[in-house]
Structure formats: structure tokens, C-alpha cells
Amino acid sequence: MGVSLKDVALRAGVSVKTVSNVVNDYPHVRAGTRDRVQRAIDELGYRPNATARQLRTGRSGIIALAVPELGNPYFADLATAVIDAAAHHAHTVLLDHTAGLRANETLVSQGFRSHLIDGLILSPIHLEREDLLHRPARPPLVLLGEREYDAPFDHIAIDNVAAARLAVRHLLGLGRRRIAFVGARRDSRRQPAHLRLRGWREELLAAGRTPREDLVIATDGYDRLDGAVAMTRLLDLPEPPDAVFAYNDLVALGALRVLAERGVKVPEQVAVVGFDDIEDGRYGAVTLTTIAPDKAAIARLAVDRLIARIEAAPERTPPPPRRILPGHTLVVRESTAGRAPHRT
Amino acid sequence: MGVSLKDVALRAGVSVKTVSNVVNDYPHVRAGTRDRVQRAIDELGYRPNATARQLRTGRSGIIALAVPELGNPYFADLATAVIDAAAHHAHTVLLDHTAGLRANETLVSQGFRSHLIDGLILSPIHLEREDLLHRPARPPLVLLGEREYDAPFDHIAIDNVAAARLAVRHLLGLGRRRIAFVGARRDSRRQPAHLRLRGWREELLAAGRTPREDLVIATDGYDRLDGAVAMTRLLDLPEPPDAVFAYNDLVALGALRVLAERGVKVPEQVAVVGFDDIEDGRYGAVTLTTIAPDKAAIARLAVDRLIARIEAAPERTPPPPRRILPGHTLVVRESTAGRAPHRT
DNA sequence: CTGAAAGCGCTTACAG
DNA sequence: CTGAAAGCGCTTACAG
């Protein structure tokens, strides 16, 4: 079917070894030989067969990225950044979505399709530590996101507690006294959002205030609808909050929608802070104040770390797994700062 | 390193052929033999090497999907749907983004990484017909989206002209008389959006109205920012429009943001219709009326068609390429219908 | 600097 | 119903 090394070798009158040397830029090839081989390659339109190379070398040049859902712009942005970072290392990205389900996350982490990929970047939601315990050493795994595991894997995530405290401090600075947290889980044993919730608690305590647990709203997921449902409940409280810190921007946007529906003024009556800095937050009728994780840094660090493990010689002891903390910033917009007067 | 067929064969006391037969569910294997082999497989933890299988069969089980950008929720949704549809055929999806650049789109269509993939689904923006002309027959290609090419490839897209006419008809039915189109291109030779623009023109003419070309606004891209810039220009016109039909929802959302900023009432003063039905449009302060393409159908049809070509016997003449038109609907929301009174 | 040959782990005619 | 063997297209010690 296709043109193989052998065809090129025949045409150039050399062995396949020499052709292989030329194709892989092996330095010690005589210039004349190289030219002759190159000409044969061009004439025949030869292109190396990646599969055969992979079978021989054990490397595919593919890394997998598994996120809960691409429908969340945060993960779409992250995926884009990972694809770009991988391209820098001449790697391609195979994308998986887990729907945040523990079973899917476990399957992926256990090496589903592992023969096809050199490494895996996984952003888990409901995966538990024990799901990770009997994982084979290959392909290497880098974890992303808020969930922390006492397990020997690199983990790239911003400091969620510090970021949450920054958000709550901002709201306290605006004089807000009833600050709700939206995005806890009903099941107290499983708290994917526990770090952001902890930050909310810590900052309130540090300010000498008692965290009001009735202002902690559990949600089913982390989508706009969850934020809308939670906000409705909060507004129906005898004493509604004057601020909302949402687990993420989608939840915050759902809350903003309900506030608009009910005619509640933002930020005058209720201030809102999200988390992720997705683009939607910059274009609503009220733009959204949010925590902006450095997504490019997250992607770059994750890919760099993964590639380093992929390329590590198997006989040497690998570097110990690390927690790496990319930066984050608070981006203040209308949902806490109010709107500049109309340009008319 | 890993456990191979040979190891299993040795342990089960059969030939590799028999193990292969069991692994691939070849029917004619004696039950006793099958059990013995299965036990050996389980004990050794054997898992087939996909790379070796691919080298032998020429099939990887991977299809590539190339979209302009994942940051547009429409493409994120589409990618999700394609991943699901591919999973039905036991295929995995390799994701590429082209940034809508002709060079990237050409590279992908010409078979970049073609040894790794069984087929390609491409949603082009600026690709031209000539870029497609000297494409090798393999891997098969299915095209998506508004751009039409007089080239022998399957093409899955909703009827963009009919959909645009539906949107404009809706606005006309609301009594709007100055209906702008936002999302044309400056360069008149390259009009990715030409079908939706044509629909705008045709429906106005059919209603006995003259399309006002000064209400056709060119944009650099199809993002929120482009919609915001365009809306600003429209509002600064001596006689601003009373309705906007946007190329897509992102552009429409950018326009809505500017309308809110300027204190223009939607839909009373300006009604807005988008295109794509992304989730953001359902949660703004003013929800967005839009054309909803049947994304699941698009993904399913594209994958089905691609898999059929992948599995077609190479010696038989392949089925002729087809244009397939999945359905679409108009979803009416507040940006044209107004808001229901507050629930208080 | 270059060649002949083994082998990565499968699948698949070809026999029996 | 099962086995022995070739071969997919590479890379890479091993020679020379």
C-alpha cells in the first residue's frame, strides 16, 4: 500500500538502516548519501509509519487528557492549552471526558487504551485514593484539579484554599456580612469542593466572623442550573445573603440569571464571585468577578512534568512526585464592583 | 515488558493463533480451550497491544476531529457528541484545533498524523477547494459546517440558508423592519458565513423588503468581542436597527452585553437572534433566541459516515460522497419574546 | 560511515 | 477446531 523504508532504500541503493538514519536525523551520514536518500524520499513521497515506529520504540507521541466535560469552558480552555503545550513537545492529545463519574475516572486512570498513549493527564472529580492504588507504573500519570490524594503522583493545582480566601476577603472588604458558599456536596464524605469551602470558612474565622452553615448550599453538580437552583433557595431564605461565593463561574452565572429574573440588584443587594475566569463571565449584562487560575501555566507544567516522566530512563529511579502550585489572581468586575456609568 | 500473546499461549499450552482467536471472539473455539486460555489471560493480566494490532490490520481505532476552537461552546458540545458517537463504534477521538487558519486546516486535511488515524472529521473555516484537491484517498474525510466545496467528500451540515430564513422570518413576524446581520467578512471573496447571509437576504426579499447592506456588519472573527464591537457600531448609526441576526451565539452574546451597557431594552428596542444554541444563551440576564442545530445528529451522521468509509473494502468502489442535512429548530427566548413577569 | 538481521506483538492465509 | 510461519514497517545492537 504505502511506501516503506525498504522501497526508499531500494531506490537510493542503500540499506534501510541508512534511510532510517536520514529520516531520524542521525548525524553521522555522509552528505552525498544523505542527498541521494532524501531525493528518493521526495520522489516516492515516503512518510514514516508512526505505528511501526511505536511498536519498536514503545512510544506513540500521544498523551491523553481526561476532563469531566468539555462543555465547561474552563475545561475547554484547559484542553486547548494542553494541546498547545503538547505540540511544543511534538505530542498529540487524545481527549477523553469522564462526566466526573468515579467509574470512568477509575477506568481511565487504570490504563484504558494505555497501549496507545505515552502518558495521561487526569482531572478527577469523584475518584478516590483507593482507585489509584493498584495502578501500573506505566503510562505515567499527572493529576490536575482540586482533589488531593495521598498517592505518588504529580499534582498540578492552584492553591484553592488561598484563592477562596482571597475571594471571601474581597467580599468582606466590600462590607458584606452574609456571604454564602454555593457548590458544596450533599454527601458529606465526598467533598470535591472541600478546599474552596475550607477557604471560605478560614477567611470568615480570620475576620472574627462565625461561618453560617445555613449559607453553605449543596448542589448536585457544578453547572449553571445548579447555581440557579441554589440561588433560588438562598433568595427564599428569611434573611437572604448579601454576597455569594460560587464554586465556579458556571454556578455563579446560574445564580446571576436568577438574580436578574427576580430583579435583585447586583452588586448592590447581592455581590457575586465565581471561580475559573471563563469568557462568558466577561460578557454578561453584569460581568463576573472571579478567581483566575493561570490555565496556561497549569497546562504547561502538567505537560512538562508528564513528558519528563515519559522520557525518564526506566532503569533509573524516577524523580519523586510533586505538588506544583501555579498562580491565580482575583479579577474584579461588575458583579462586585458595580458598573461604570453608561457611555452615551 | 508487558505480557504478550506468546506468554499466554505458553501458559495455556496452545498456539498464539488460538489465543488470538479467543481474544477476538472468533466463534469456532472449543469451550474447554476457550476457558483454559481465558484463565491464562486473567492470571497473567494480559491485555492486547493495540499498536501491534494496528500495524497488522492498518487500523488504529482512532479518528481525528479538527475544529476551529474548543473555546467556542458549540465546538466543545460537538466534540463531546463526536466522542460519544465514536465510542459507539469502539473508536477514540484525537482532537485538533485549527484556530480556523487555512494553513492548519490544509495541513490536517492533507493527512498530518495520518498513520495514527483511521479517519478525519474536519470543520473548516478558511479552507479552500484547491487545498482539498490533491488529498490522498486515505484516511477518509468527512466535512462539517457551513462551508461547501465542490469536492468529493461527505459533508454534514444543517440547511444554513433555511435556518437563517427562519430566524429572519421570526424577526419580521415581530414587526421588525431594520434587521441587521452581524458576522459577514470584510474580504468579499472569502465568505464563510455566506449561507446565513444569503438566508437573511432571501427572506427579506421574499417579504418584499430591500436588504439594507449598511446593516450587514463585517467582523474579524466570530467571538463575543466581535459581536460587541459590531453592536457598538450599529448603535452609533444615525438610525440603529431594531433587530440583530448574529452569525452565532457568541457574537449575539457580545451584542447583548453592549445593549445592556448602553441601557437599550431587549427585545423592546432591539431584538436579537443567535445561532448554535450554546448553553450560555440560556442563562444570561436576557436569554437568547437562537437556531438550534441538531448537534447529536450531526455528530452521529458524521461518525457513521466516516466509519462506513473506513470499513469499506478497498477493492470495491466506495459509495459516492453525499451532502447530509441534519435538522434544526428555532428556540424562542427572551431576546425576542421578552421576559415573563418576575416571580416574587 | 554503512549493512545484514533480529525482533517489537500482533493477524491471517495456509495446512492439517 | 488448531498449529507453524510469514510479515506489517520500523529501530537498533552487532559487525565491519
From TrEMBL, chains A, B:
SUPFAM superfamilies listed in its UniProt record: lambda repressor-like DNA-binding domains, Periplasmic binding protein-like I
A Gene Ontology molecular function term of the record: DNA binding
Domain of life of the organism encoding this protein: Bacteria
Chain ranges of the HTH lacI-type domain: 3-57
Keywords associated with the record: DNA-binding, Transcription, Transcription regulation
A Pfam family reported for this protein in Swiss-Prot or TrEMBL: LacI
Name of the featured protein: LacI family DNA-binding transcriptional regulator
Source organism: Kitasatospora saccharophila
